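User: Here's a chain of 461 residues. Predict its fold as C-alpha coordinates.
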Amino acid sequence: MDREIDPPSREELLLQNNKLRLALVEQETARRHYARLFEQAPVGYLTLDGEGSILQANGTATNLLGRPFGELAGRPLERFIHDQDRGLFCRHFAELPSATTPRHCELRMENIDQTVFWVQLRYTGKARGDDEALCLVTFGDITASKQAEQALQEQKDFFHLIAENLSDFIAVLDLDGRRLYNSPSYRQLFGADRNVHDTDSFAEIHPDDREYVRQVFRETVLTGRGQRIEYRFMTVEGETREMESRGSVIKDEQGHVVRVVVVSQDITERKRLQEQVRQMAFHDPLTGLPNRRLFDDRFNLTMAATTRSNEFGALIFIDLDNFKLLNDSHGHDIGDQLLVETANRLKHGVREMDTVARFGGDEFVVMLGQLDIERRSSLAQARMIANKLCQALAEPYRLTVGQPGSSGSRSFDYCCTASIGVSLFNQHDTSQCKILKRADAAMYQAKSLGGNQVRFCRCRG
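Assistant: Prediction complete.
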Protein backbone atom coordinates (compact mmCIF):
# COMPACT_ATOMS: atom_id res chain seq x y z
CA MET A 1 0.00 0.00 0.00
CA ASP A 2 1.46 3.32 -1.08
CA ARG A 3 2.20 5.74 1.65
CA GLU A 4 0.72 9.14 1.09
CA ILE A 5 3.15 12.10 1.06
CA ASP A 6 2.09 14.98 3.14
CA PRO A 7 2.09 18.35 1.35
CA PRO A 8 4.75 20.83 2.55
CA SER A 9 3.73 23.04 5.32
CA ARG A 10 3.39 26.75 4.98
CA GLU A 11 6.62 27.28 6.89
CA GLU A 12 8.48 24.92 4.55
CA LEU A 13 7.12 26.70 1.49
CA LEU A 14 8.25 30.06 2.87
CA LEU A 15 11.70 28.66 3.58
CA GLN A 16 12.02 27.21 0.06
CA ASN A 17 10.77 30.47 -1.41
CA ASN A 18 13.40 32.46 0.53
CA LYS A 19 16.17 30.10 -0.66
CA LEU A 20 14.97 30.53 -4.24
CA ARG A 21 14.99 34.31 -3.93
CA LEU A 22 18.50 34.26 -2.44
CA ALA A 23 19.72 32.02 -5.25
CA LEU A 24 18.23 34.36 -7.84
CA VAL A 25 19.85 37.35 -6.12
CA GLU A 26 23.23 35.59 -6.06
CA GLN A 27 22.79 34.61 -9.68
CA GLU A 28 21.98 38.18 -10.65
CA THR A 29 24.91 39.49 -8.63
CA ALA A 30 27.25 37.04 -10.35
CA ARG A 31 25.82 37.97 -13.74
CA ARG A 32 26.37 41.66 -13.08
CA HIS A 33 29.85 40.94 -11.73
CA TYR A 34 30.88 39.00 -14.81
CA ALA A 35 29.16 41.56 -17.04
CA ARG A 36 31.32 44.27 -15.46
CA LEU A 37 34.40 42.12 -15.93
CA PHE A 38 33.40 41.56 -19.55
CA GLU A 39 32.78 45.25 -20.19
CA GLN A 40 35.81 46.58 -18.33
CA ALA A 41 38.34 43.96 -19.41
CA PRO A 42 41.64 45.47 -20.66
CA VAL A 43 41.22 43.62 -23.98
CA GLY A 44 38.43 43.75 -26.50
CA TYR A 45 35.97 40.81 -26.66
CA LEU A 46 33.87 40.03 -29.73
CA THR A 47 31.70 37.09 -30.68
CA LEU A 48 31.23 36.41 -34.39
CA ASP A 49 28.72 34.40 -36.33
CA GLY A 50 29.53 32.03 -39.17
CA GLU A 51 29.90 34.91 -41.60
CA GLY A 52 32.35 36.75 -39.38
CA SER A 53 29.80 39.41 -38.36
CA ILE A 54 29.83 40.86 -34.88
CA LEU A 55 27.26 39.46 -32.42
CA GLN A 56 28.64 40.86 -29.18
CA ALA A 57 31.26 43.43 -28.18
CA ASN A 58 32.47 44.62 -24.81
CA GLY A 59 33.25 48.22 -23.90
CA THR A 60 36.96 47.92 -24.66
CA ALA A 61 36.17 46.63 -28.14
CA THR A 62 33.78 49.49 -28.86
CA ASN A 63 36.37 52.01 -27.60
CA LEU A 64 39.10 50.55 -29.76
CA LEU A 65 36.87 50.52 -32.84
CA GLY A 66 35.47 53.95 -32.03
CA ARG A 67 31.79 53.00 -32.42
CA PRO A 68 28.96 52.07 -30.06
CA PHE A 69 27.75 48.49 -30.03
CA GLY A 70 24.63 49.40 -31.95
CA GLU A 71 26.75 50.39 -34.95
CA LEU A 72 28.97 47.33 -34.64
CA ALA A 73 26.32 44.63 -34.32
CA GLY A 74 25.88 42.68 -37.53
CA ARG A 75 28.85 44.27 -39.28
CA PRO A 76 31.67 42.03 -40.54
CA LEU A 77 34.82 42.35 -38.46
CA GLU A 78 36.75 42.16 -41.71
CA ARG A 79 35.76 45.76 -42.49
CA PHE A 80 37.80 46.98 -39.54
CA ILE A 81 40.95 45.16 -40.66
CA HIS A 82 43.61 47.14 -42.53
CA ASP A 83 43.62 46.42 -46.27
CA GLN A 84 47.13 44.96 -46.23
CA ASP A 85 46.30 42.53 -43.39
CA ARG A 86 42.78 41.51 -44.44
CA GLY A 87 43.99 38.42 -46.27
CA LEU A 88 45.76 37.20 -43.11
CA PHE A 89 42.57 37.66 -41.08
CA CYS A 90 40.44 35.80 -43.62
CA ARG A 91 42.84 32.83 -43.72
CA HIS A 92 42.79 32.46 -39.95
CA PHE A 93 39.00 32.79 -39.81
CA ALA A 94 38.52 30.19 -42.54
CA GLU A 95 40.67 27.68 -40.61
CA LEU A 96 38.62 27.93 -37.40
CA PRO A 97 36.04 25.19 -38.05
CA SER A 98 38.78 22.58 -38.50
CA ALA A 99 41.27 24.03 -36.01
CA THR A 100 41.95 22.08 -32.82
CA THR A 101 43.84 24.94 -31.12
CA PRO A 102 43.18 28.69 -30.92
CA ARG A 103 44.61 30.90 -33.66
CA HIS A 104 46.44 34.16 -33.02
CA CYS A 105 48.18 36.76 -35.12
CA GLU A 106 49.33 40.39 -35.14
CA LEU A 107 47.74 42.75 -37.64
CA ARG A 108 46.54 46.30 -38.16
CA MET A 109 43.01 47.57 -37.63
CA GLU A 110 41.27 50.89 -38.33
CA ASN A 111 38.77 52.71 -36.13
CA ILE A 112 36.04 55.14 -37.16
CA ASP A 113 38.58 57.93 -37.64
CA GLN A 114 40.61 55.65 -39.91
CA THR A 115 43.35 55.67 -37.31
CA VAL A 116 45.51 52.61 -37.80
CA PHE A 117 46.56 50.66 -34.71
CA TRP A 118 48.26 47.32 -34.16
CA VAL A 119 46.46 44.53 -32.30
CA GLN A 120 47.10 40.96 -31.32
CA LEU A 121 44.03 38.88 -32.24
CA ARG A 122 43.20 35.54 -30.72
CA TYR A 123 40.47 33.36 -32.28
CA THR A 124 38.70 30.62 -30.29
CA GLY A 125 36.23 28.22 -31.93
CA LYS A 126 32.52 28.17 -30.92
CA ALA A 127 31.51 26.63 -27.62
CA ARG A 128 29.30 23.53 -27.34
CA GLY A 129 25.61 24.29 -27.40
CA ASP A 130 26.14 27.72 -28.95
CA ASP A 131 24.24 27.46 -32.19
CA GLU A 132 24.72 31.07 -33.19
CA ALA A 133 28.26 32.16 -32.33
CA LEU A 134 31.11 30.69 -34.37
CA CYS A 135 34.01 32.05 -32.37
CA LEU A 136 35.21 34.37 -29.64
CA VAL A 137 37.75 37.00 -30.65
CA THR A 138 39.96 38.82 -28.18
CA PHE A 139 42.23 41.65 -29.23
CA GLY A 140 44.41 44.22 -27.49
CA ASP A 141 46.14 47.36 -28.66
CA ILE A 142 49.89 46.66 -29.06
CA THR A 143 50.69 49.81 -31.05
CA ALA A 144 53.10 51.14 -28.43
CA SER A 145 55.07 47.90 -28.26
CA LYS A 146 55.07 47.66 -32.05
CA GLN A 147 56.41 51.20 -32.33
CA ALA A 148 59.10 50.39 -29.77
CA GLU A 149 59.91 47.19 -31.67
CA GLN A 150 60.08 49.12 -34.93
CA ALA A 151 62.29 51.79 -33.36
CA LEU A 152 64.59 49.09 -32.01
CA GLN A 153 64.72 47.42 -35.41
CA GLU A 154 65.48 50.76 -37.05
CA GLN A 155 68.32 51.24 -34.57
CA LYS A 156 69.63 47.77 -35.36
CA ASP A 157 69.36 48.42 -39.09
CA PHE A 158 71.07 51.77 -38.65
CA PHE A 159 73.87 50.16 -36.63
CA HIS A 160 74.34 47.44 -39.22
CA LEU A 161 74.29 50.01 -42.02
CA ILE A 162 77.09 51.91 -40.31
CA ALA A 163 78.99 48.78 -39.30
CA GLU A 164 78.74 47.25 -42.78
CA ASN A 165 80.09 50.35 -44.49
CA LEU A 166 82.66 51.73 -42.06
CA SER A 167 86.33 51.21 -42.69
CA ASP A 168 86.75 50.96 -38.91
CA PHE A 169 86.81 47.49 -37.36
CA ILE A 170 83.90 46.79 -34.98
CA ALA A 171 83.88 43.70 -32.78
CA VAL A 172 81.47 42.53 -30.07
CA LEU A 173 83.14 40.19 -27.58
CA ASP A 174 81.93 38.06 -24.70
CA LEU A 175 83.54 38.33 -21.27
CA ASP A 176 86.22 35.82 -22.25
CA GLY A 177 87.22 37.86 -25.31
CA ARG A 178 85.62 35.53 -27.85
CA ARG A 179 84.12 37.12 -30.94
CA LEU A 180 80.32 37.35 -31.16
CA TYR A 181 80.28 39.81 -34.07
CA ASN A 182 82.84 41.26 -36.45
CA SER A 183 82.12 43.94 -39.02
CA PRO A 184 82.81 43.06 -42.68
CA SER A 185 85.90 45.30 -42.64
CA TYR A 186 87.69 42.50 -40.77
CA ARG A 187 87.78 40.50 -44.01
CA GLN A 188 90.83 42.45 -45.11
CA LEU A 189 92.64 41.20 -42.00
CA PHE A 190 91.32 37.62 -41.82
CA GLY A 191 90.52 36.90 -45.46
CA ALA A 192 87.11 36.86 -47.10
CA ASP A 193 86.42 33.14 -46.55
CA ARG A 194 87.32 32.83 -42.89
CA ASN A 195 84.53 32.68 -40.29
CA VAL A 196 85.85 34.20 -37.07
CA HIS A 197 82.68 33.88 -35.01
CA ASP A 198 83.35 32.41 -31.55
CA THR A 199 87.13 32.59 -32.00
CA ASP A 200 89.70 34.04 -29.59
CA SER A 201 90.11 37.76 -30.29
CA PHE A 202 93.63 37.78 -28.79
CA ALA A 203 95.04 35.06 -31.05
CA GLU A 204 96.08 37.40 -33.89
CA ILE A 205 97.62 40.07 -31.66
CA HIS A 206 101.41 40.27 -31.86
CA PRO A 207 102.89 37.97 -29.18
CA ASP A 208 104.83 40.85 -27.61
CA ASP A 209 101.61 42.88 -27.16
CA ARG A 210 99.14 40.07 -26.37
CA GLU A 211 99.36 40.05 -22.57
CA TYR A 212 99.10 43.85 -22.43
CA VAL A 213 95.90 43.78 -24.51
CA ARG A 214 94.49 40.97 -22.34
CA GLN A 215 95.14 43.00 -19.20
CA VAL A 216 93.39 46.08 -20.64
CA PHE A 217 90.42 43.89 -21.63
CA ARG A 218 90.17 42.45 -18.10
CA GLU A 219 90.27 45.94 -16.61
CA THR A 220 87.49 47.06 -18.98
CA VAL A 221 85.28 44.14 -17.91
CA LEU A 222 86.06 44.73 -14.22
CA THR A 223 85.58 48.52 -14.15
CA GLY A 224 83.13 49.04 -17.03
CA ARG A 225 85.41 51.77 -18.41
CA GLY A 226 87.04 51.42 -21.79
CA GLN A 227 90.60 52.46 -22.64
CA ARG A 228 92.30 53.58 -25.83
CA ILE A 229 95.34 51.48 -26.66
CA GLU A 230 97.77 50.87 -29.51
CA TYR A 231 99.15 47.45 -30.40
CA ARG A 232 100.31 45.30 -33.31
CA PHE A 233 98.04 42.91 -35.19
CA MET A 234 99.08 39.97 -37.38
CA THR A 235 97.05 39.56 -40.59
CA VAL A 236 96.25 36.30 -42.35
CA GLU A 237 99.20 36.95 -44.69
CA GLY A 238 101.54 37.38 -41.72
CA GLU A 239 101.79 41.15 -42.15
CA THR A 240 102.08 43.29 -39.02
CA ARG A 241 99.61 46.17 -38.78
CA GLU A 242 99.56 48.96 -36.22
CA MET A 243 96.10 49.18 -34.59
CA GLU A 244 94.38 51.65 -32.31
CA SER A 245 91.38 50.35 -30.32
CA ARG A 246 88.91 51.68 -27.80
CA GLY A 247 86.59 49.46 -25.81
CA SER A 248 83.17 50.11 -24.31
CA VAL A 249 80.77 47.85 -22.44
CA ILE A 250 77.16 46.67 -22.69
CA LYS A 251 75.43 46.16 -19.34
CA ASP A 252 72.30 44.25 -18.33
CA GLU A 253 69.40 45.62 -16.27
CA GLN A 254 71.32 44.96 -13.06
CA GLY A 255 74.29 46.97 -14.30
CA HIS A 256 76.53 43.95 -14.88
CA VAL A 257 78.87 43.97 -17.88
CA VAL A 258 77.73 41.33 -20.38
CA ARG A 259 79.49 42.35 -23.60
CA VAL A 260 82.49 44.39 -24.70
CA VAL A 261 82.38 46.42 -27.92
CA VAL A 262 85.74 47.25 -29.48
CA VAL A 263 86.14 49.80 -32.27
CA SER A 264 89.56 49.68 -33.95
CA GLN A 265 91.40 51.57 -36.64
CA ASP A 266 94.37 50.58 -38.74
CA ILE A 267 96.89 53.32 -37.99
CA THR A 268 99.83 51.76 -39.82
CA GLU A 269 99.95 54.50 -42.43
CA ARG A 270 99.47 57.20 -39.80
CA LYS A 271 102.36 55.81 -37.76
CA ARG A 272 104.50 55.67 -40.88
CA LEU A 273 103.76 59.30 -41.66
CA GLN A 274 104.43 60.27 -38.06
CA GLU A 275 107.77 58.52 -38.19
CA GLN A 276 108.50 60.22 -41.50
CA VAL A 277 107.71 63.63 -40.01
CA ARG A 278 109.81 62.82 -36.95
CA GLN A 279 112.63 61.68 -39.21
CA MET A 280 112.43 64.91 -41.19
CA ALA A 281 112.33 67.00 -38.02
CA PHE A 282 115.30 65.34 -36.33
CA HIS A 283 117.41 63.87 -39.14
CA ASP A 284 119.37 65.19 -42.07
CA PRO A 285 117.36 64.29 -45.21
CA LEU A 286 120.48 63.55 -47.30
CA THR A 287 122.53 61.33 -44.99
CA GLY A 288 119.87 60.18 -42.50
CA LEU A 289 122.11 61.28 -39.63
CA PRO A 290 120.73 63.20 -36.63
CA ASN A 291 120.53 66.92 -37.33
CA ARG A 292 121.50 69.77 -35.01
CA ARG A 293 118.20 69.60 -33.09
CA LEU A 294 118.45 65.88 -32.27
CA PHE A 295 122.17 66.21 -31.58
CA ASP A 296 121.51 68.93 -28.99
CA ASP A 297 118.99 66.66 -27.27
CA ARG A 298 121.41 63.75 -27.15
CA PHE A 299 124.19 66.06 -26.02
CA ASN A 300 122.06 67.04 -23.02
CA LEU A 301 121.50 63.37 -22.16
CA THR A 302 125.21 62.59 -22.47
CA MET A 303 126.20 65.53 -20.25
CA ALA A 304 123.65 64.44 -17.63
CA ALA A 305 125.06 60.90 -17.71
CA THR A 306 128.57 62.31 -17.39
CA THR A 307 127.54 64.21 -14.27
CA ARG A 308 126.11 61.04 -12.68
CA SER A 309 129.03 58.75 -13.56
CA ASN A 310 131.97 61.18 -13.36
CA GLU A 311 133.10 59.73 -16.71
CA PHE A 312 134.56 61.87 -19.48
CA GLY A 313 132.99 62.39 -22.86
CA ALA A 314 134.46 63.81 -26.05
CA LEU A 315 133.16 65.93 -28.90
CA ILE A 316 134.78 65.43 -32.33
CA PHE A 317 134.26 68.21 -34.88
CA ILE A 318 134.93 67.23 -38.53
CA ASP A 319 135.23 69.43 -41.60
CA LEU A 320 136.11 68.01 -45.04
CA ASP A 321 139.22 69.51 -46.65
CA ASN A 322 138.63 69.28 -50.39
CA PHE A 323 134.85 69.29 -50.58
CA LYS A 324 134.33 72.76 -52.09
CA LEU A 325 136.61 71.91 -55.00
CA LEU A 326 134.54 68.80 -55.76
CA ASN A 327 131.28 70.78 -55.68
CA ASP A 328 132.66 73.50 -57.92
CA SER A 329 134.09 71.09 -60.51
CA HIS A 330 131.45 68.33 -60.61
CA GLY A 331 128.29 69.84 -59.14
CA HIS A 332 126.20 69.27 -56.03
CA ASP A 333 124.93 65.82 -57.03
CA ILE A 334 128.47 64.44 -56.91
CA GLY A 335 129.11 66.34 -53.70
CA ASP A 336 126.01 64.72 -52.18
CA GLN A 337 127.39 61.27 -53.07
CA LEU A 338 130.55 62.04 -51.13
CA LEU A 339 128.61 63.36 -48.12
CA VAL A 340 126.49 60.19 -47.96
CA GLU A 341 129.61 58.01 -48.10
CA THR A 342 131.26 60.19 -45.44
CA ALA A 343 128.28 59.62 -43.15
CA ASN A 344 128.51 55.85 -43.67
CA ARG A 345 132.23 55.79 -42.85
CA LEU A 346 131.68 57.83 -39.69
CA LYS A 347 128.83 55.54 -38.48
CA HIS A 348 130.98 52.44 -39.00
CA GLY A 349 133.94 54.01 -37.22
CA VAL A 350 132.32 54.64 -33.83
CA ARG A 351 130.66 52.60 -31.09
CA GLU A 352 126.93 51.89 -31.10
CA MET A 353 126.40 54.16 -28.09
CA ASP A 354 128.03 57.15 -29.83
CA THR A 355 126.23 59.78 -31.90
CA VAL A 356 127.18 60.95 -35.39
CA ALA A 357 125.41 64.08 -36.65
CA ARG A 358 125.58 66.40 -39.63
CA PHE A 359 125.65 70.09 -38.79
CA GLY A 360 125.26 71.23 -42.38
CA GLY A 361 127.41 71.55 -45.49
CA ASP A 362 130.50 69.39 -45.04
CA GLU A 363 130.57 69.67 -41.21
CA PHE A 364 129.98 66.61 -39.04
CA VAL A 365 130.22 66.01 -35.31
CA VAL A 366 130.75 62.82 -33.32
CA MET A 367 129.88 62.63 -29.64
CA LEU A 368 131.59 59.99 -27.52
CA GLY A 369 130.15 59.10 -24.12
CA GLN A 370 131.17 56.84 -21.23
CA LEU A 371 134.93 57.01 -21.82
CA ASP A 372 136.62 56.80 -18.44
CA ILE A 373 136.76 58.61 -15.11
CA GLU A 374 140.48 59.26 -15.68
CA ARG A 375 141.38 62.08 -18.06
CA ARG A 376 144.48 60.38 -19.48
CA SER A 377 142.62 57.18 -20.33
CA SER A 378 139.71 59.11 -21.80
CA LEU A 379 142.10 61.17 -23.93
CA ALA A 380 143.70 58.00 -25.29
CA GLN A 381 140.33 56.49 -26.21
CA ALA A 382 139.18 59.67 -27.94
CA ARG A 383 142.49 59.95 -29.82
CA MET A 384 142.23 56.36 -31.05
CA ILE A 385 138.69 56.86 -32.38
CA ALA A 386 139.47 60.26 -33.95
CA ASN A 387 142.56 58.91 -35.73
CA LYS A 388 140.55 55.92 -36.96
CA LEU A 389 137.95 58.31 -38.42
CA CYS A 390 140.62 60.48 -40.00
CA GLN A 391 142.16 57.49 -41.74
CA ALA A 392 138.77 56.20 -42.92
CA LEU A 393 137.83 59.57 -44.41
CA ALA A 394 141.17 59.84 -46.22
CA GLU A 395 140.46 56.73 -48.27
CA PRO A 396 139.49 57.51 -51.92
CA TYR A 397 135.78 57.90 -52.68
CA ARG A 398 134.30 56.11 -55.69
CA LEU A 399 131.90 58.62 -57.28
CA THR A 400 129.67 58.24 -60.35
CA VAL A 401 128.73 60.91 -62.87
CA GLY A 402 125.35 60.28 -64.50
CA GLN A 403 122.79 57.59 -63.71
CA PRO A 404 124.57 54.52 -62.31
CA GLY A 405 124.37 51.60 -64.77
CA SER A 406 123.45 53.76 -67.77
CA SER A 407 125.61 53.88 -70.88
CA GLY A 408 126.57 57.52 -70.33
CA SER A 409 127.66 57.17 -66.71
CA ARG A 410 131.30 57.14 -65.59
CA SER A 411 133.00 56.64 -62.26
CA PHE A 412 136.13 58.19 -60.79
CA ASP A 413 138.04 58.19 -57.52
CA TYR A 414 138.29 61.34 -55.44
CA CYS A 415 140.38 61.99 -52.34
CA CYS A 416 138.82 64.21 -49.71
CA THR A 417 140.58 64.29 -46.35
CA ALA A 418 139.24 65.83 -43.15
CA SER A 419 140.36 68.24 -40.45
CA ILE A 420 139.30 66.99 -37.03
CA GLY A 421 139.15 68.80 -33.68
CA VAL A 422 138.48 67.08 -30.36
CA SER A 423 137.39 68.44 -26.99
CA LEU A 424 137.05 66.38 -23.84
CA PHE A 425 134.33 67.27 -21.31
CA ASN A 426 133.16 66.04 -17.92
CA GLN A 427 130.80 67.01 -15.08
CA HIS A 428 132.48 70.38 -14.66
CA ASP A 429 131.35 71.52 -18.11
CA THR A 430 127.89 73.09 -18.06
CA SER A 431 127.71 74.68 -21.51
CA GLN A 432 127.32 72.80 -24.77
CA CYS A 433 128.21 75.96 -26.61
CA LYS A 434 131.62 76.21 -24.95
CA ILE A 435 132.40 72.55 -25.66
CA LEU A 436 131.44 72.99 -29.32
CA LYS A 437 133.57 76.12 -29.60
CA ARG A 438 136.57 74.29 -28.17
CA ALA A 439 136.19 71.42 -30.64
CA ASP A 440 135.63 73.88 -33.51
CA ALA A 441 138.78 75.80 -32.57
CA ALA A 442 140.79 72.55 -32.51
CA MET A 443 139.39 71.66 -35.96
CA TYR A 444 140.48 75.01 -37.42
CA GLN A 445 143.94 74.46 -35.94
CA ALA A 446 144.11 71.11 -37.80
CA LYS A 447 142.97 72.80 -41.04
CA SER A 448 145.52 75.61 -40.69
CA LEU A 449 148.25 72.98 -40.44
CA GLY A 450 147.25 71.51 -43.81
CA GLY A 451 144.31 69.28 -42.86
CA ASN A 452 144.07 65.50 -42.79
CA GLN A 453 144.96 65.43 -39.09
CA VAL A 454 143.53 65.46 -35.57
CA ARG A 455 144.05 68.21 -33.00
CA PHE A 456 142.88 68.38 -29.39
CA CYS A 457 141.76 71.46 -27.54
CA ARG A 458 144.51 72.40 -25.09
CA CYS A 459 142.18 73.95 -22.53
CA ARG A 460 141.20 71.78 -19.58
CA GLY A 461 138.13 69.58 -20.32
